[in-house]
Specification:
Elements: E1 4-7, H1 11-25, H2 27-43, E2 52-59, E3 65-73, E4 80-87, H3 94-114, E5 123-127, H4 131-143, E6 149-154, E7 157-162
Antiparallel strand pairs: 1-2, 2-3, 3-4, 5-7, 6-7
Helix pairs in contact: 1-2, 3-4
């Protein structure tokens, strides 16, 4: 069983996540790093064709949101893009939490691919914007071992295919 699962967001879940993340890093850092993200999340809880959708990655052990995920569905559901993953402040120290960050991203890919809301989805791509993100994607690529799927690079995109 995966440690994280993709979930629909509720206002209660967003509120408890906001409290948890704010207490972890303080009010000023929270406002600077996450203020606009939480505003966006609250405005994108419902799917609207052609617009992005916010979902949460719930930690099955703690019952808390470990990351927000931004997904967009194209017209008539023919294409889906994983636009962004916003991990909680818990994952900020990538040096000591690298394997946990990799596990989170692997679960994001798997959850998005296997989500009942995206039955026609067979491929998810995420872009390596920075050297640090590319390093993370290379680690995910080297550790990818989910049966019935494969991970390949397409330039700076890591593409996960569901067979």
């Amino acid at each position: 069983m995966s440690k994280y699962k993709l979930v629909e967001l509720t206002q209660n879940l967003i509120d408890t996540t906001k409290e948890s993340w704010q207490s972890a890093i303080g009010e000023d850092a929270f406002s600077l790093e996450f203020g606009l993200i939480f505003d966006w999340v609250e405005a994108h809880m419902q799917a609207i064709e052609g617009d992005s959708l916010a979902k949460g990655m719930l930690n099955n052990d703690t019952g808390q949101i470990a990351a927000f995920v931004e997904i967009v569905s194209g017209r008539k559901g023919q294409m889906h893009k994983l636009l962004k993953v916003v991990p909680s402040p818990y994952f900020w120290d990538v040096t000591t939490r690298r394997l946990e960050v990799i596990e989170l991203y692997i679960d994001v890919f798997f959850s998005v691919l296997s989500s009942h809301g995206f039955k026609s989805l067979h491929k998810v791509k995420i872009y390596g914007r920075s050297d640090e993100m590319m390093s993370l994607l290379k680690s995910i690529h080297s550790l990818w071992s989910i049966p019935g799927s494969s991970a390949e690079f397409e330039g700076r995109f890591l593409s996960i295919h569901w067979k």
